[in-house]
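Quick start: what a row looks like.
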Amino acid sequence: MAGLLWVGTVSFGLIVGSFLNVVIWRVPRGESVVSPTSACPRCGHAIRPRDNVPVASWLLLRGRCRDCHAPIAVRYPLVEATTAVAFVLVLLRIGWTLALPAYLFLAAIGLALALIDLDVHRLPDALVLPAYPVTAVLLTAASWASGDWSALLRAAIGGAALWALYFILMSVRSGGMGFGDVKLAGVLGAGLGWLGWGSLVVGGFAAFLLGGVYAVGLLLTRRAGRGSRVPFGPWMVLGAAVGVAVGEPLWAAYLDVVLVAAG
């Protein structure tokens, strides 16, 4: 039975990943994610159901359209596989609790927004703003199921705190951060705060650490200058993932070191 649940999680992740490919392409362009059906951008032929099986179809078609043989970007199966892996990791961290849907949702929306930001340097309101009520409802359900209403309070504080931090940074350094980053910070802060203060602090800090290391790497390799704009959304999402995965033990270890040094 347990094996079937894991297989179901992987399958669900692959299906969601396939849908995310549609979201990543269409949402920034203001297109519907429901219609029309997916088609080859070169020949216009609709993708057949048998050619729309996540990962497997790309492999069987050898990465080419069945009709015109145009190459299909490897990014599509990678997004599908990455979503499946992310869902498995979320399940390992959260377990079979009512908090699981909230963090599966955050993983999916985070991956989509990270890739969109890389593509167009923008975090669309069409995805970020609906994430607020969805996250609120799912985390409220999780608190109701566990009886831990303090976690919901932490989520509210975490969302507000991270939103405020990013807003201040955007205000004091013009051009360094966009309002899309501010709005995404509120969603991620809520998810991190629900898990604990350690997850919130580590997840928030990790975004700046990882983003900073990447920016320094670009400068050292001369792939970017001091005035270059680097999308920060992917680092926010990756930092949040670090906070979810290891935020609590890292924060506890840090506090132990501080207490020992102070004592």
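That is the whole record. The mean pLDDT is 91. The chain is about 70% helix and 0% strand.
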